[in-house]
Amino acid sequence: MEIAVNTNGSKYHVNEKGYYGNFGGAYIPEMLYPNVEELRQNYMQIMADPAFQQQFTQLLKDYVGRPSPLYLAQRLSEKYKANIYLKREDLNHTGAHKVNNTIGQILLAQRLGKKRIIAETGAGQHGVATATVCALMGLECIVYMGSVDIERQAPNVARMKMLGATVVPATSGSRTLKDATNEAIRDWINNPVDTHYIIGSVVGPHPYPDMVARFQSVISEEIKLQLQEKTGTPYPNYVMACVGGGSNAAGTFFHFLDDEQVQLIPVEAAGKGVNSGFSAATSQLGKPGVIHASKTLLMQTEDGQIIEPHSISAGLDYPGVGPLHAHLFESGRARFMNATDDEALAAAFELTRLEGIIPALESSHALAKLKDLQLQPSDVVVVCLSGRGDKDMATYINHMELIAKS
Amino acid sequence: MNRIDQLFAAKKERILNIYCTAGFPALEDTLPVMTALQAHGADMIELGMPFSDPLADGPVIQDSSTRALQNGMSIKKLFEQLKGFRKNIQVPVILMGYLNPVLQFGVEAFLQQCAETGVDGIILPDLPMAEYEQDYKPLFEKYGLHLIFLVTPETSDARIRQIDAVSNGFVYAVSSSSTTGKDKDMKGQQAYFERLKKLQLQHPVLIGFGIKDKATFDAACAYSNGAIIGTAFIKAVENSQALDKDIQQFIQTVLS
Ligand SMILES: Cc1ncc(COP(=O)(O)O)c(C=O)c1O
Predict the structure, then answer these.
(1) Is the CB of A363 within 6 Å of ligand 1?
(2) For residue A317, which of A108, A162, A173 has the smallest C-alpha distance?
(3) Which residues form the Tryptophan synthase beta chain-like PALP domain (chain A) (predicted)?
């Protein structure tokens, strides 16, 4: 395992100015300039340092439990008449892919001499992963979380508190991930010297999208090795991942970006339907603009006000998408799909009953699109199972009760 | 000559710039507020273009933005309101807002409307200097509009000089590292204000963020050409039943 550092010359990786095609950049107020500039100037050098890589790799192995298995899901494969592999990020310590990034960023924050860590969280997985590494390193941790999400992801709130983090409710706007991110950015403006902001996805100002993608790139690095071993070639026909901000998808796609024979399938949350007015399918509903300091696709009104999204899954309930994904959409490199709340729920129950794996609601959005791929029996599909479903039990229990009643 | 430059040519001290969100407290209050501000002694007016996600603002200005949006405010509506305002209002007017609504309006269309209605300057905190220079500077110059940049206590001397060189009009010195409306102690900022003064910038300096009354206004003016008041003014008018009278009283207290 090592962090991908050299990506020069790729059409799909970030350029030296911090852009992916027309998207990216750092549209930050001057108050954040010193922080973001400090990161920009140092992140590649720190990541390339063999001592840093060694520390990162060791923690991923011994603490997180990597490599995560690539599991050939037999009964799921039978059902969809293809060879379906699950990349088991749900088996990571803390239960999702988010920890790959927080391990990387906490080591980076230590190198920069930061004493205080802030984060935003939607589903609470990134909050838990941040609180975990802060406990591990003995650093103060403040997590901003929308008050709506605090209610729907209660188990993760309890975990963060037990880990010693302060969870601060975001009560503005839609009171979900977007607003938690606003509050975290405001905190950083107010605490510019001692604080590092661990962003949880491939969003925000450059260098965050690139930095987070590189920390998550371990996912596709492992997939290639594991597939080579299992099938004799590192190239599947399809790689699929759900997209909130896009970090598990970025990690799943990273080492396949320039392998054009591999189809990249990002799956967004359609909510109650793409055109229902309650959706988070940014590539379908968004236009170019600036959200959280990045030029990207975002859901907005004609006047440029950001639209409040909807998804049953807190981790996908975001009106933007990372600039890498905006570029993959615009360039046609990835084929964007979307799944409704109901499709995701059905897929969660299907995986549970066929494979004995209860997935996170987020990951279920990716699973839900297997039925729409028109697969051939020889096709090899890798789905990133980005997280486990423990945090979503309340939603799943409700669903079971509804079905029992009807 | 741009009205901002005219003002600084004529007046070097105790310049009072007041911020108010457009379309606030009520949609049609934009012009009455501006008229009262000029009548009672504000030297410059900063009009906020409300945005759903104002990252650099604290709760008071956030709430004023939300309310203005609920009132139906938009950039399009603002330009309708501003049509003909120069018949009655002579002080410089600056539009402050976030980049996204301006991008959707169209940057050139926006600047053209600013020039046509008689706006003098723009503040877009999330448009960084590098992007401005690369993409937009010729457009601002074409329409004779000043883009005002911020500096903060964490901005290095070298960067302050760079910003001063790219700036037009004045340099907006954020008093402390904070979002708007935070009560951070101004006393702790003396070293920073001294540093700014020693730099002898080409452009005048106005201090903003945390200026809320006579004491803080006087303190800021000791180091700069004047100051900008936002949050305190919003608080003074948010529940006002008599805008003109309340604005008069607010300004009198600050300038007393
Ligand atoms: C399990 C899981 N998957 C996916 C996501 C979505 O984030 P991203 O798109 O950055 O992978 C989240 C976010 O909270 C999550 O918890």
Answers:
(1) yes
(2) A173
(3) 65-387
Measured distance CA(A313)–CA(B100) in Å, rounded: 27
Q: Which of B5, B29, B57, B164 is an active site residue?
A: B57
Q: Do B150 and A192 touch (CB under 8 A)?
A: no
For residue A320, list its beta bridge partners. A298
Ranges of each domain in chain A = 20-56+98-208, 64-95+217-405
Query: What SS3 state is found at B2?
Result: coil
Q: At what angle do helices A50-59 and A33-48 cross, to 10 degrees?
A: 90
Domain count, chain B: 1
Angle at B110 between CA B106 and CA B116, to 5 degrees: 150
Clarify whether B57 is annotated catalytic. Answer: yes
Q: Considering the domain boundaries, does residue B94 fall inside one? A: yes
Q: Is residue B246 part of a domain?
A: yes
Domains A20-56+98-208 and A64-95+217-405 share a fold: yes
Residue range(s) defining the domain that contains residue B207: 15-255
CATH tag, A20-56+98-208: 3.40.50.1100
CB atoms within 10 A of CB A124: 28
Q: What is the DSSP letter of A144?
A: E
Cis peptide before A359 (omega within 30 of 0): no
- Cβ A173–B58 below 8 Å, yes or no? no
pTM: 0.96
Which CATH number do you get for residue B86?
Answer: 3.20.20.70
One-letter identity of residue B191: A
A246 pLDDT tier (thresholds 50, 70, 90): very high
Q: Which atom of ligand 1 is nearest to the CA of A361?
A: 1
pLDDT in tens, A143-202: 999 999 999 889 999 999 999 999 999 998 889 999 999 999 999 999 999 999 999 999
3-state secondary structure of A339: strand
CA distances to A131, A176, B11 from A157, rounded to whole Å, are 10, 14, 55
CATH number for the domain running over A64-95+217-405: 3.40.50.1100
